[in-house]
Design brief:
heterodimer, A: 190 residues, alpha+beta, Alpha-Beta Plaits, five-stranded antiparallel sheet, disordered N terminus, B: 593 residues, Rossmann fold, 3 domains, six-stranded parallel sheet, 20 strands, globular, EC 2.2.1.6 (chain A), branched-chain amino acid biosynthesis (chain A), AHAS_ACT (chain A), Acetolactate_synth/TF_NikR_C (chain A), acetolactate synthase activity (chain A)
Chain lengths: 190, 593
């Protein structure tokens, strides 16, 4: 993850990329069969693409279809390559660049949400402060005893970052984040 | 399929494998037995519809299957055991992936109950071969085995062809289940686009009709698309009057004797082909992929042209070079539309192309493939020229290894038909040619099959001589023996101050005795005036031949586009002095391959 951006394809790319790298969110619909995730992430590592975030789960059980959401970073040229390379994988049904799609729909970006579980331990003032802030962030308490809380918080990645940052001095013990789930606004499907 | 298509019925996994091969029209399988494939070998033993060719190393099986595939247009099939059998198959699998060759590789696996236990001869075959196949499968349920093998053939041979692996645990080979015949209902996720968009084809015709300095640049995709595609390519060239060049992979799609042929392009292509690529105003790329051997320095690649790119693989479009008119589809289908629309709308103004052809004639007059003839030693180029002159009127197939000899073969052996030229282009696999020749000979028992080899490459898979002897496959291994890894040495001269680190083979086997030891025939020749007779002897011998052709040791392969240079910065043979060679590549180009 976050490896230095490599130019794709030929070793003869000695001309510097003039395009600026952008973050894009891709939705990839795949057959849920053994090895399919390895094919997708192997493509990213093998061709030197970045993965900023990756989320996967079966979404249509009767058809055995999984939806993989990948946040990646690259120049428009590299992002186009990533899409086409993903489409070459045999069990891949569809690849949609949600970011491009949202631009087509006249929006800045697709809806992106992430869930985090945040464990905070402490007593006294910091414990009270943690609970108060959690309330302000609309994080809910899903486990607690007299020495700790586990908060569940959902939102944009930046909100989660902020919440985690302010929990740090209040006894932050452990974080688990799901990665980004995303879709486009409006009535149409992907 | 002598018995026609089979029915649904119960059988063992091993029986299914053989039945599925028959149902997919397989006549020959290249393989090597081992513990985890014994049940399949037992089934092979009990029938004679599918012939098994026993190689001496699994890599040999893979390249033989590739040669078989490339010379027939059908899928090549290899069968190997688990563990080392599968890992030895990796090189041919990647080779087939890079060159888009349909290759079906069946591997044995330890029983499902032992997978993951580090069992004897266990390896993670699907994990290891995932990046070097188009797709692969581990079959854990015997009831899915038949459908999986059928799907494997479908995936290997359709769209952009490529290698596939089906990994079959031993208990699945023994288990009984229901066999299903091949069906025409492929999976919904895999739908290669074969028909090009008509609007794009129209745009291409318009662009071509207005071209003043056009060039057609064709590649292996034309060959892969089938003989009809080559036929249509010839028709298109005739109709338009455009000059045509080809990649290493595409040689033979347009005949080298054709009047519009300007020779191969790229790093060791002709001056006229590369200059025409650089100066053209419209480039029509057909089934090629703008590989770095072709383009040279990308930011100086054909700077003033509009580019049309026909390819079945959308990821090839805009990968290395920006395309103005991309057409995604099978080359044959797109050419059909292109030729039809050209006939209907465009008038070929061949007169308008006169100045362009005059310019090309000037470049051609530079005679970039020239070399200094010698009466004392055989020049490698001369050896190929004589080989060509003495074999061109026969039913000849040529394979090569990788290196200088390969480039000389591409430059000086001329191909009139597709599927006659088998060489490892993308991966550059030394040791490809000998087993590939074996595969070609098995497919075409009566043909003259020659591996133009180098002395270093040929020793990488020499053991397959034994296979050739066993199956009476009279392959001719024509070794241009200069005792060097010639291309390595050439690059050391270009990049590393002529310090020839480990590119000289101090101990060379006696190839004549070696041939005899294998039960083949050995010939040695080191005099130019004896060469013709020696080649004739090679042709007439009905056994596998090792021909030790002793050539000038220090000859280098020109013309050349040095790394990091553009098409119009070629190093021509008459300018390639020691000093020019030593300074041909600047610091930036040095890190390139």
């Amino acid at each position: 993850m976050n490896a230095q951006l490599q130019p794709t394809g030929s070793a003869y790319f000695i001309a510097k990329e003039t395009e600026k790298p952008e973050n894009h969110t891709l939705s990839v619909l795949v057959d849920n069969e053994p090895g399919v995730l390895a094919r997708v992430i192997g493509l990213f590592s093998g061709r030197g693409y970045n993965i900023e975030s990756l989320t996967v789960s079966e979404t249509e059980h009767e058809k055995h279809l999984s939806r993989i959401t990948i946040v990646t970073r690259g120049t428009p040229h590299v992002l186009e390559q990533i899409k086409h390379q993903l489409e070459r994988i045999v069990p891949v049904h569809r690849v949609v660049d949600l970011t491009v799609r949202s631009h087509e729909l006249g929006q800045e970006r697709p809806l992106e949400r992430e869930l985090a579980l945040v464990k905070v331990a402490g007593t006294g003032d910091s414990r009270v402060e943690a609970l108060r802030l959690a309330d302000a962030f609309r994080a809910s308490v899903i486990d607690a005893n007299t020495e700790h809380f586990i908060f569940e918080i959902t939102g944009k990645g930046s909100k989660l970052d902020q919440f985690i940052a302010i929990m740090k001095p209040l006894g932050l013990v452990e974080i688990c984040r799901t990665g980004v789930a995303a879709m486009n606004r409006g009535p149409q499907g992907m | 399929m002598s018995n026609g298509q089979s029915e649904r019925r119960e059988m063992t996994g091993a029986e299914m494998v053989v039945q599925a091969l028959k149902d997919n029209g397989v006549k020959h399988v290249f393989g090597y037995p081992g513990g985890a494939v014994l049940p399949i070998y037992d089934e092979i033993f009990q029938q004679d519809e599918v012939e098994h060719i026993l190689v001496r190393h699994e890599q040999g099986a893979g390249h033989a299957a590739e040669g078989y595939a490339r010379s027939t247009g059908k899928a090549g099939v290899m069968l190997v055991t688990s563990g080392p059998g599968a890992t030895n198959a990796v090189t041919p699998l990647q080779d087939a992936l890079m060159d888009s060759i349909p290759l079906v590789c069946l591997t044995g696996q330890v029983p499902t109950s032992l997978i993951g236990s580090d069992a004897f001869q266990e390896c993670d075959t699907v994990g290891i071969t995932r990046p070097c196949t188009k797709h692969n499968w581990l079959v854990k349920d015997v009831n899915e085995l038949a459908a999986t093998i059928h799907e494997a053939f479908h995936v290997a041979t359709t769209g952009r062809p490529g290698p596939v692996v089906v990994d079959i645990p031993k208990d699945v080979q023994f288990a009984k289940g229901m066999y299903v015949p091949p069906q025409t209902a492929p999976r919904t996720s895999y739908q290669p686009k074969v028909q090009g968009d008509l609007d794009k084809v129209k745009a291409a015709v318009e662009l071509m009709a207005g071209a003043k300095r056009p060039i057609i640049y064709s590649g292996g995709g034309v060959i892969n698309s089938g003989s009809e595609a080559s036929h249509l390519l010839r028709e298109l060239v005739d109709l338009t009057g455009f000059p045509i060049t080809s990649t290493l992979m595409g040689l033979g799609a347009y005949p080298a004797s054709g009047k519009n042929w300007v020779g191969m392009l790229g790093m060791h292509g002709t001056y006229e082909a590369n200059m025409a690529m650089h100066d053209c105003d419209v480039m029509i790329c057909i089934g090629a992929r703008f590989d770095d051997r072709i383009t040279g320095r990308l930011n100086a690649f054909s700077p003033n042209s509009k580019k049309i790119h026909i390819d079945i693989d959308p990821s090839s479009i805009n990968k290395n070079v920006h395309t103005d008119v991309p057409i995604i589809g099978d080359v044959g289908r797109v050419l059909e539309d292109l030729v039809r629309l050209w006939r209907a709308s465009a008038k070929a103004d061949k007169k308008a192309l006169h100045p362009w052809w005059e310019q090309i004639a000037k470049w051609r007059a530079r005679d970039s493939l020239a070399y200094k003839m010698s009466h004392d030693v055989i020049m490698p180029q001369y050896a190929i020229q004589r080989l060509y002159a003495l074999t061109k009127d026969m039913d000849t197939y040529i394979t090569t290894e990788v290196g200088q000899h390969q480039m000389w073969a591409a430059q000086h052996y001329h191909f009139e038909k597709p599927n006659r030229w088998m060489t490892s282009g993308g991966l550059g696999t030394m040791g490809y040619g000998l087993p590939a020749a074996l595969g070609v000979q098995i497919a075409h028992p009566k043909a003259l099959v020659i591996d133009i080899a180098g002395d270093a490459s040929v020793q990488m898979t020499m053991q397959e001589m034994s296979t050739a002897v066993q199956y009476d496959a009279p392959i001719k291994i024509f070794i241009l023996n200069n005792q060097y890894m010639g291309m390595v040495r050439q690059w050391q001269q270009l990049l590393h101050g002529n310090r020839l680190s480990h590119s000289y083979t101090e101990a060379m086997p006696d190839f004549v005795k070696l041939a005899e030891a294998y039960g083949g025939h050995g010939i040695r020749c080191d005099k130019p005036d004896e060469l013709d007779d020696a080649i004739k002897e090679m042709i007439s011998v009905k056994k596998p031949v090792l021909f030790d052709c002793r050539v000038a040791t220090l000859a280098n392969c020109f013309p050349m586009i040095p790394s990091g240079k553009a098409h119009n910065e070629m190093l021509l043979p008459d300018e390639a002095t020691d000093e020019a060679v030593a300074n041909a590549i600047d610091a930036k180009g040095r890190e390139l391959v």
